[in-house]
């Protein structure tokens, strides 16, 4: 009986020790690991996001030197970037870029195009109405909803308070 | 020079999104990031603070989705002046019509042409 109690205590002691070690390890992991990944992710997002917008600026410069006004050149550039974002998603390249670049590939308009094509492709086998066409708006839908609602609210405020 | 500025400002706008995803305790998905950028872009633009960024960085400010919000806000503000209450509803959507139509049409065509990978 005494020996049993002893081994029970011993077991409990081992468990507590194990838990303490795990806690220590988790604390250590938390203090070291996320820092490294968030810095790495931020650098990747900066480089890829910056490259995409710099590339868009090159296209815009070409349009402007071809004689388009700044606003029209901007719209034409937007169309090209949407096309490229959709095209490279179709090729399967953009989603791989996203794994590395995170927000760097999400935030530019190419990422918006990606968010349309990616689920549309994924659910293609469910048909062209409930698969492709419906799933296109999985993320684009909320973006348009909140965008339009915000714009109408801004418009109402401007209308009544100007 | 304009390309370098577009790189730096465009990169920084993306980094903000990455930091929000990594450093906040909430589970923030790409959908939240995109919705947040459009909404914040429109709000910042409506008080006149986004246009200076566009003047400075060009595509660096218009290509991130906050630029889409900027176009929505500027479109509705101009339309309110010229068309009144009808402009409240139409202005933002009219200004962004080309981009939205391009995204829907190109997105659909690509989804039809290509097949899912792997």
Overview in brief:
The complex is a heterodimer of chains A (162) and B (118). Chain A has 162 residues and is mostly helical. Chain A has helices at residues 2-65, 70-90, 93-101, 103-106, 109-122, 128-135, 137-161.
Can you characterise this structure?
The complex is a heterodimer of chains A (162) and B (118). Chain A is mainly α. Chain A has a domain at 28-122. Chain A is built from 7 helices and no strands. Chain A has helices spanning 2-65, 70-90, 93-101, 103-106, 109-122, 128-135, 137-161. In chain A, helix 1 (2-65) crosses helix 2. The longest helix of chain A is centred in the N-terminal third of the chain and has 64 residues, at 2-65. Chain A is elongated. The mean pLDDT of chain A is 90. Chain B is an all-alpha fold and 118 residues long. The mean pLDDT of chain B is 94. Chain B starts with a helix and ends in a 5-residue tail after the last helix. Chain B has one domain (2-113). Chain B has helices at residues 2-23, 30-46, 51-57, 59-62, 65-83, 85-113. At the A-B interface, helix 1, helix 2, helix 4, helix 5 and helix 6 of A face helix 1, helix 2, helix 4, helix 5 and helix 6 of B.
Q: How are the SSEs placed, and which strands pair?
A:
The complex is a heterodimer of chains A (162) and B (118).
Chain A: H1 2-65, H2 70-90, H3 93-101, H4 103-106, H5 109-122, H6 128-135, H7 137-161
Helix pairs in contact in A: 1-2, 2-5, 5-6, 5-7
Chain B: H1 2-23, H2 30-46, H3 51-57, H4 59-62, H5 65-83, H6 85-113
């Amino acid at each position: 009986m005494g020996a049993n109690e002893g081994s029970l205590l011993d077991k409990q002691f081992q468990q507590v020790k194990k838990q303490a070690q795990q806690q220590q390890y988790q604390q250590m992991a938390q203090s070291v690991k996320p820092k490294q990944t968030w810095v790495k992710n931020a650098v990747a997002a900066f480089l890829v996001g910056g490259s995409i917008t710099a590339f868009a600026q090159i296209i815009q410069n070409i349009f402007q030197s071809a004689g388009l006004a700044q606003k029209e050149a901007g719209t034409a550039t937007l169309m090209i970037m949407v096309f490229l974002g959709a095209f490279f998603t179709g090729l399967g390249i953009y989603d791989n870029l996203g794994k590395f670049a995170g927000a760097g590939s999400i935030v530019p308009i190419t990422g918006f195009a990606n968010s349309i094509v990616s689920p549309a492709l994924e659910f293609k086998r469910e048909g062209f109405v409930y698969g492709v066409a419906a799933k296109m708006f999985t993320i684009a839908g909320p973006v348009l909803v909140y965008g339009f609602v915000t714009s109408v609210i801004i418009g109402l405020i401007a209308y009544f308070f100007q | 020079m304009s390309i370098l500025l577009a790189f730096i400002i465009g990169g920084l706008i993306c980094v903000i999104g990455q930091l929000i995803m990594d450093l906040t305790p909430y589970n923030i998905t790409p959908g939240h990031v995109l919705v947040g950028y459009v909404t914040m872009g429109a709000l910042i633009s409506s008080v006149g603070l986004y246009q200076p960024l566009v003047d400075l960085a060009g595509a660096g400010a218009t290509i991130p989705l906050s630029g889409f919000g900027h176009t929505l806000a500027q479109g509705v503000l101009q339309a309110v002046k010229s068309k009144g209450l009808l402009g409240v509803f139409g202005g933002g959507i009219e200004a962004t019509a080309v981009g939205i139509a391009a995204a829907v049409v190109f997105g659909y065509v690509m989804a039809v042409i290509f097949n899912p990978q792997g």
